[in-house]
């Protein structure tokens, strides 16, 4: 009797959460405007309650998946009794309805976190922030309940489900969506702070000190989420592609770029009380692009390999949410931004100016990605041209901005606040510059007659890494013991910047030096590819838990010495009637050997693909380092609230506004 | 939001067994390399954003063979691409041509950068010369808050 009840309970708590969110969005806002303390005080408990209710609904849906409750439509469509437990749980967000539920749960989680840790915020500001956060919650809870109810029942429950898409039955992908949503939705916090600040008409250092950790956390999660997705594509899709410039990938990349810009501009607000209105605008745009991403994925307006089952009704609903929130916030911005006067004064050559350039490059890069993504739509609507915009465009139009950014980054990072000179900033970086040029020359010498891609990428990457190291050394006054005493934020900055450098090296060398070999191999045959001798030793049929597999045994050797034995597979998942390719990869620091088994050939033998991918792992290692850098910064004592209060005391006459 | 997760539903039709098959490849590695280069900018007309190189769809295979035929016949890369675009429309071109309205697409980025640089230059000049506003005394609220923090 209990089991069928649980889904109803979930539905019920979700509806209750909508009610609580409504209360939370109205009462504290009115209270803050009128100065009614009782109404202001509603915000914190409501935010906690809203989260608990949505979490209960999420738990109920998870229970449905774990126990294979086939009276729930989403469970029937996305699960199967034989599926391993990990994927039963991951199946909760492996579909439109469940993933939206995860989305609002994270939204409420951020609201609740602000309620719990926000004791130090001025109560009015906190009330307004939580109220705006709840408004977003109302919109998306209504969206779920009206168009995408995960607790829909089927009239005649079947004995078994349709299984989750086998491509998604993968550990990398199981955790990819939760991280991305933590990132997307985390930006809602920056949005809520921005709108609350506009309503209050003030933005000061304390405000920036509050916005930055949330943005940093969101950016960190987005970094991990995007890296997981890219890593998954690399090993699962069967040819080692890691980024496709697909509309849905772009949808996650634009908020990432804007969040990166935002967390840099918030530094300027915090330290120098300048760039205030720009920072507020960025906060609105960053979340706006998260919503645009949601719209792109859920509406199917742009064709994408990733698109959900498309539904125009849902698309229109999300478009309405987008219009109300972003339109509303921008209108508010237009009306109030003038009130946010800047204070700090600085010269043309200064850290402030460098961060302005950083913001400009990141924002324009995001704009290029945006226009490339929506251009097919535009061209069809206004010029009646059906066209495509793909990787070749983005490679050409987007890359220059990243090159400029990388050239300027180490220099800008070392410049002092207020006023500096390029010459004295270059002095500590001279070694880094020499090293970068030397390694570029080496890369150039290693390759014969190929593009400039690898040398340029190696030069920029080295410049970033060595520049970050040189900056640490410079800040420690060139004394090793002092390195340990540098603030964690300095280490975080160095880690994130050198992570970016590692990604640069990984992407450029992988794209430039990738070796590919496609051929028919007989069982027992040895062939040569990219300097390795590869033997197709055996091919056999193997049974997996919920699939059957054609598994090859391939031996990789170099100069007669066996390096590794790999087992690429081709799997068939009978329930979903779908084949997948499981590449076998020998991971290395400097190269991956990547083997794929294809179809049997008519006159015997198998199609086999061999790739030697230089520096592939650097892409993900660099991404992880970037995220770790964010984490280090986040753990800096400056963000501990008391320390923050002490600081503003030390700078006492720097008033708010 | 994204994305892959859910999503790959559409990859169903494009299950990841790669496009190019050994039997299709040209014997001359230089010509084959050119064919691959051309294929990487051509979109499979019936797939979801895949190049003809990556797709398993029959039409993608036909196009791969057409590309190789034209390459063998001595066409330059541009001639091969023109040949395919003439028959399937510019939809199959992943690298949109900078002609007509597409100029907007290509110019938008650099134009935005220039515009941003001008605005930033104006802003920076103003910040460089603005008098540093004198610190304003704390407001009633702020002073009270400060006392609270001090007492903690």
UniProtKB/TrEMBL annotation, chain B:
Gene3D superfamilies: Cytochrome C biogenesis protein (1.10.8.640). The keyword Transmembrane applies. Keywords: Cytochrome c-type biogenesis, Heme, Iron, Membrane, Metal-binding, Signal, Transmembrane, Transmembrane helix. The chain crosses the membrane at residues 103-124. InterPro entries: C-type_cytochrome_biogenesis, CcmH/CycL/Ccl2/NrfF_N, CcmH/CycL/NrfF/Ccl2_sf. It comes from the Bacteria. Residues 1-19 form the signal peptide. Pfam families: CcmH. Residues 8-150 form the CcmH/CycL/Ccl2/NrfF N-terminal domain. Belongs to the CcmH/CycL/Ccl2/NrfF family. Possible subunit of a heme lyase. This is Cytochrome c-type biogenesis protein.
């Amino acid at each position: 009797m209990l089991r069928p009840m649980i889904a109803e309970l979930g539905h019920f708590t979700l509806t209750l959460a909508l009610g609580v969110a409504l209360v939370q969005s109205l009462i504290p806002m009115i209270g803050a405007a009128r100065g009614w303390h009782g109404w202001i005080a509603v915000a914190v408990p409501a935010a906690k309650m809203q989260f608990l209710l949505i979490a209960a609904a999420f738990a109920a849906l998870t229970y449905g998946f774990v126990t294979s409750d086939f009276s729930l439509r989403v469970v029937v469509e996305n699960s199967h009794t034989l599926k391993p437990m990990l994927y039963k749980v991951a199946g909760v967000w492996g579909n439109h309805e469940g993933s939206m539920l995860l989305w609002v749960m994270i939204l409420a989680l951020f609201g609740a976190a602000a309620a719990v840790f926000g004791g130090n915020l001025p109560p009015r500001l906190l009330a307004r922030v939580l109220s705006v956060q709840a408004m977003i919650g109302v919109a998306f809870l209504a969206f779920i309940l009206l168009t995408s109810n995960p607790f829909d029942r089927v009239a005649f429950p079947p004995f078994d489900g349709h299984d989750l898409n086998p491509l998604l039955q993968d550990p990398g992908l199981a955790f990819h969506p939760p991280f991305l949503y933590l990132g997307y939705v985390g930006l809602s916090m920056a949005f809520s702070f921005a709108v609350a600040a506009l309503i209050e008409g003030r933005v000061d250092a304390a405000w920036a000190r509050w916005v930055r950790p949330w943005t940093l956390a969101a950016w960190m999660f987005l970094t991990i989420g995007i890296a997981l997705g890219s890593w998954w594509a690399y090993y699962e899709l069967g040819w080692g592609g890691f980024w496709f410039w697909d509309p849905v990938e772009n949808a996650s990349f634009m908020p990432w770029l804007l969040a990166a810009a935002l967390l840099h501009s918030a530094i300027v607000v915090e330290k120098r009380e300048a760039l205030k209105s720009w920072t507020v605008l960025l906060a609105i745009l960053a979340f706006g692009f998260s919503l645009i991403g949601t719209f792109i994925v859920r509406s199917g307006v742009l064709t994408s390999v990733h698109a959900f089952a498309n539904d125009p009704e849902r698309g229109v609903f999300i478009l309405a949410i987008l219009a109300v929130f972003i339109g509303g916030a921008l209108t508010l911005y237009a009306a109030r931004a003038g009130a946010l006067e800047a204070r700090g004064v600085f010269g043309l050559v200064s850290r402030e100016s460098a961060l302005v350039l950083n913001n400009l490059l990141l924002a324009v890069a995001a704009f290029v990605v945006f226009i490339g993504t929506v251009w097919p739509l535009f061209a069809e609507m206004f010029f009646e041209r059906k066209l495509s915009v793909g990787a070749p465009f983005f490679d050409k139009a987007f890359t220059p901005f990243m090159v400029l950014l990388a050239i300027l980054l180490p220099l800008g990072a070392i410049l002092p606040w207020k006023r500096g000179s390029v010459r004295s900033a270059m002095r500590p970086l001279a070694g880094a510059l020499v090293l970068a040029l030397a390694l570029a020359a080496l890369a150039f010498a290693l390759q014969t007659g190929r593009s400039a891609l690898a040398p340029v990428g190696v030069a920029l990457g080295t410049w970033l890494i060595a520049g970050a190291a040189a900056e640490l050394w410079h800040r420690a006054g060139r004394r090793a013991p002092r390195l340990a005493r540098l603030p964690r934020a300095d280490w975080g900055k160095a880690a994130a910047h050198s992570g970016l450098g590692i990604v640069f090296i990984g992407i450029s060398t992988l794209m430039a030096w990738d070796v590919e070999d496609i051929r028919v191999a007989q069982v027992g045959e040895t062939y040569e590819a990219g300097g390795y001798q590869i033997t197709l030793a055996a091919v056999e049929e193997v049974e997996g838990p919920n699939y059957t597999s054609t598994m090859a045994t391939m031996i990789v050797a170099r100069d007669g010495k066996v390096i590794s034995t790999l087992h690429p597979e081709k799997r068939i998942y009978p329930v979903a009637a779908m084949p997948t390719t499981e590449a076998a990869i020998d991971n290395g620091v400097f190269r991956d050997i990547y083997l794929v088994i294809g179809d049997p050939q008519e006159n015997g033998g198998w199609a086999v693909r061999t790739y030697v991918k230089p520096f592939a792992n650097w892409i993900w290692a660099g991404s992880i380092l970037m995220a770790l850098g964010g984490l280090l910064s986040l753990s800096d004592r400056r963000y501990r609230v008391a320390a923050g209060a002490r600081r503003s005391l030390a700078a006492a006459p720097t008033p708010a506004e | 939001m994204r994305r892959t997760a859910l999503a790959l539903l559409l990859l169903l039709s494009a299950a990841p067994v790669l496009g190019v098959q050994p039997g299709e490849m040209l014997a001359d590695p230089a010509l084959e390399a050119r064919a691959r280069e051309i294929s990487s900018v051509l979109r499979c007309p019936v797939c979801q954003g895949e190049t003809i190189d990556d797709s398993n769809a029959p039409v993608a295979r036909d196009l791969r063979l057409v590309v190789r035929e034209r390459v063998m016949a001595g066409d330059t890369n541009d001639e091969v691409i023109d040949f395919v675009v003439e028959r399937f429309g510019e939809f199959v071109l992943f690298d949109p041509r900078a002609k007509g309205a597409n100029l907007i697409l290509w110019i938008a980025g650099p134009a935005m950068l220039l515009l941003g640089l001008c605005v930033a230059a104006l802003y920076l000049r103003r910040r460089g010369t603005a008098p540093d506003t004198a610190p304003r005394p704390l407001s009633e609220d702020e002073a009270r808050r400060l006392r609270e923090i001090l007492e903690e």
